[in-house]
Structure to design on (429 residues):
């Protein structure tokens, strides 16, 4: 089935305006071959391709638009431990795998950390992340989290903050407490994605841009088709997340696209930076529908939130996000907004990323429910392990049951929007 979109350049984000490298990989033309063909040049696809290349595989990576064009090049840049839905996997498999899951939830951070250092990727990487409480039940969650860190003898700096400390560091009365840790952090996601793709290319990965895949022809050696060419491979990895429409018989209505939106201010004065985020931390609240913010390297406030689960774009991103930012930081009321943008995340009903195989040699990996900078890097490694024959961790996810909402994707989005309305009401209580 043909994809439903045209190839496009990057959206007008702060990230696209500050890229280190404008990628210009060739369009796929004619017949190519590889051990593994990866479809989608976001973090999932690039991390998978790079992991495979590091292990000596011959890889082709095909992107419909530009490397990092999707959610990976547009997100909040918060590198946060955890993979959504892990608690359900633990419930199914019991305490025996608790330590393995604890390691897995941090694994993506370590991979990013290593790659930034090994390949000298300039992506403004900083450690330090604080989860903030808006209501008393959030404080209970933070205390449980701190106890979990204690139990694991967590080797990085972490601390619980009371209201006064949170006020002192984050310059707002909106938060009643916080939990900071220095293993999570933040970065320029588009520069990370492009830097990882550059590293993969230098290890021999054939990268193609502006080459939407139109069809996967299954078989012992699957053939991946675009308008101008094809790649024959031993294995295929489908990593198009919320933006692809391939393999509808197997994958339609497994994940649902939902919009998330960010505004970026003009660079703030030093006085303002000292007032609202002098430690340069990434910040996320504990609501079900989260607000998140951080400073860019040039000290702009990047403030995001307000997922749109109905599949409809808001009429104005600024009109939808600015009041939220000003509620938290009224002191920014005279600051100019210079960028606004959004992107699509892939929501899964039970929140567990959907990993699996269509036939024995076509893998898919998608659906991080809005939490993916860390998780995509973990999943890239799990898929690479599976291709090499080590299925244990891949199967933890692949064997989880997912519910497919019958009917059209539009119908699925309306059902998800209704479900999220319930959570928004809870956030208001
Ligand atoms: C506004 C926003 C803020 C976010 N903030 C955070 C955050 O702060 N921290 C965090 O952890 N997560 C965040 N996320 C989520 C995170 O960005 C995603 O989970 C993650 O980037 C998903 O990566 P991906 O590679 O699977 O998908 P994408 O990055 O969406 O990549 C999919 C790629 O596949 C390509 N593609 C699709 N179909 C085809 C085809 N037929 N042929 C070839 N290529 C195809 C697309 O063009 C696209 O480039 C945010 C997301 C958004 C949108």
């Amino acid at each position: 089935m043909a994809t439903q979109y045209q190839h496009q350049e990057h959206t007008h984000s702060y990230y696209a305006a500050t890229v280190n490298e404008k990628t210009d990989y060739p369009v796929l033309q004619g017949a190519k071959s590889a051990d593994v063909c990866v479809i989608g040049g976001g973090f999932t696809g690039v991390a998978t391709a790079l992991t495979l290349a590091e292990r000596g595989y011959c890889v082709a990576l095909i992107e419909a638009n530009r490397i990092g064009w999707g959610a990976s090049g547009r997100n909040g840049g918060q590198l946060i431990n955890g993979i959504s839905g892990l608690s359900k996997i633990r419930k199914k498999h019991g305490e025996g795998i608790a330590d393995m899951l604890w390691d897995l939830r941090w694994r993506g951070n370590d991979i990013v950390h290593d790659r930034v250092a090994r390949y000298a990727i300039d992506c403004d990487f900083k450690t330090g992340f604080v989860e903030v409480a808006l209501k008393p039940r959030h404080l209970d969650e933070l205390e449980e989290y701190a106890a979990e860190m204690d139990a694991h003898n967590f080797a990085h700096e972490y601390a619980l903050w009371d209201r006064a400390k949170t006020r002192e560091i984050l310059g707002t009365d909106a938060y009643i407490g916080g939990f900071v840790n220095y293993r999570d952090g933040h970065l320029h996601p588009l520069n990370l994605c492009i830097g990882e793709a550059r590293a993969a290319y230098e290890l021999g990965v054939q990268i193609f841009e502006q080459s939407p895949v139109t069809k996967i022809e299954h078989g012992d050696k699957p053939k991946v088709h675009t308008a101008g060419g094809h790649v024959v491979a031993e294995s295929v990895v489908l990593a198009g997340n919320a933006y692809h429409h391939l393999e509808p018989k197997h994958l339609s209505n497994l994940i649902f696209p939902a919009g998330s939106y960010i505004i970026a201010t003009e660079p703030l004065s030093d006085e303002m930076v000292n007032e609202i985020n002098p430690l340069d931390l990434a910040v996320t609240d504990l609501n079900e529908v989260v607000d998140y913010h951080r400073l860019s390297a040039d000290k702009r406030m990047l403030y995001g939130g307000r997922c749109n689960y109905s599949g409809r774009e808001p009429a104005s991103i600024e009109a939808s996000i600015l009041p939220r930012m000003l509620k938290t930081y009224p002191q920014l009321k005279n600051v100019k907004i210079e960028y606004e943008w959004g992107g699509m995340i892939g929501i899964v009903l039970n929140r567990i990323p959907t990993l699996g195989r269509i036939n024995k040699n076509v893998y898919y990996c998608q659906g991080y429910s809005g939490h993916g900078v860390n998780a995509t890097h973990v999943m890239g490694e799990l898929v690479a392990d599976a291709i090499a024959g080590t299925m244990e961790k891949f199967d933890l996810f692949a064997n989880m049951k997912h519910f497919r909402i019958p009917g059209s994707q539009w119908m699925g989005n309306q059902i998800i929007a209704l479900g999220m309305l319930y959570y928004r009401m809870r956030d208001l209580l």
The CA atoms of residues 27 and 208 lie 5 Å apart. The mean pLDDT is 93. The longest strand covers residues 337-347. The chain has two domains: 1-124+187-253+350-398, 126-186+256-347+406-429.
